[in-house]
Amino acid sequence: MSTGRRRFLERSLGLLTLGVGGCKIEPIGELPPSRDAERFEFPKLPPRIPEQLEDAEATLQQLADELLAVEVPRLTTGDLRERQIGDEAPLQHLQQLLASFGLQPAGPRGGWRQALELRSTEPSGDPAAVVLRSPAAPVGVRLPPPPGTQVEPDTPPAPPESPPDAPPETPESPDSPPEAPLPSPEPSVNLAPHGAFRQPGSPSVRAGLLSTTIFAAGDKLPRESVAGRVVWLRMGKDFDAQTAEAPDQIDDVVGSARDAGVLGCVLLCEDSGPGIERLRERWSRSLRRAEDIVGDELLLVGIVGAEGSRLVEASLAVGEPRLVDVDLGTREVAIATYNLMARIVGRERPGEAVILTCAWDTPDLLQQERDTLRLLATIAAFAQLASWVQRSTRPYRSLLLLLTADGGIGAGQLEHARWSAEEGVRPTMILALDRPTGGEIGPAVLVSGHIDEATAAVDKAVVGREGRDLLIADQLAMPELAPYLRHQLPVMTVGEPPADALEGFVPSERVRGAESPEASGETGDEMGDEGTETGGEDEGLVQELDAPGPREGLHADIRLLRNLMLALGASRA
């Protein structure tokens, strides 16, 4: 999580801190009191359970296995492996699946879907140009004609080519090699082939933007010197454009520059090529909600590698003002997509709902395996809930399944949060799976979010039933769920703790003694499939899910989500 996102969560969410040792919850700050002194202790089964539910756990696991036998191949290796936002095929499939569970549609106007409109920026096929030039040099991009002007189509001028590198001088002494000389400054140079660039707002062609001299990234920028200009910032020697943290580091530096009033920001680094190429691919397409587009976005954000940095330095070394022309060769396309919503109607408070949510799309291929595990666990858990309710009694309040079109920006979550706050079913808790169990079931479960004492008690009971300890973190683990907190709606994630959360952790005596299913009060059927342990990584687990045996971790996640939904749906607090 980037520093900026952490600051947002810490500043605006006002989460209260909980400390947990083993299975004992000790609040450091005051937890919000529950609205009702009565506590729901799970498992308290609904009244009049039919005889056929005496072996409920085995029956429900068999149902999940039958569902997974069909869905795992399609979602992990088949036609629905890459579920892009705007793609109708996964939406149709998932909607039919929810209907087959016997669920009721829960979207606006009684439908399955909640619409949201997005804007996608993608390559247009035209060459990109980011031209740094002298004021006397010709404009390096073709400006669009004024509105209403008719012009004859012709071939746009090609952006200026980058000058060839000057041959390096042979050092006189191998012990003290001199720095590579700067190339001869050219009146105009196109930086697009040497960097990665994007426009945070709508695509536009700009010419004659004033630029600054080079500043060090992280230094306080003099507003009088940079406001209204394109600023050049040199990244530190420890910056590596190939790391997973690089995009967040770039966002932090660019955010600071924007606060100084710049129109654009281009970073200079020493990457030899692979890191720049990775960022170029990442930035080639962007997605945003239609109403989130604002007019004061930066006109240019970019980063150039070692070769591009030398060209910028040589151009600015002349000492005269330099201008920047921009045409990234992109276009904006409108995309209509949907959230999917289904519910089990509560018997006493149908207007309140415990919501189980998960993104159905896979916006980031690097996180595709984890996204798929989350979706499989979420769907299977709700299939079990539907089966349970059909054989038993309806829960005290409604249970709602929300499959969102995330798009990597939390788009669907924000749309649902706004709708829920204004006119939808009132959420009493939004629940999501964060880190799926990637192998052997661990000794603890991590809960993150803003929860009160009653919810903490329910969590403790449900996790304890699994023979595991409870850890609670006050900072929400999934930033894409933050829109709910902006609307003061309760949200909570559950999942495997990361390695740093287990540093110094000592399992409770009950967990250490649970060496067998009988020790934790579970039967063999309740503990899930027995067999070969899965690997420790999400990708390894997904590859093995096609086999009928090694699904212990996935079944543990399904049980956890299902039991939390049942307990929270039955709680009268």
Automatic annotation (TrEMBL):
It comes from the Bacteria. Residues 143-186 have a biased composition (Pro residues). Residues 138-204, 505-550 are annotated as: Disordered. Residues 523-541 have a biased composition (Acidic residues). This is Uncharacterized protein.
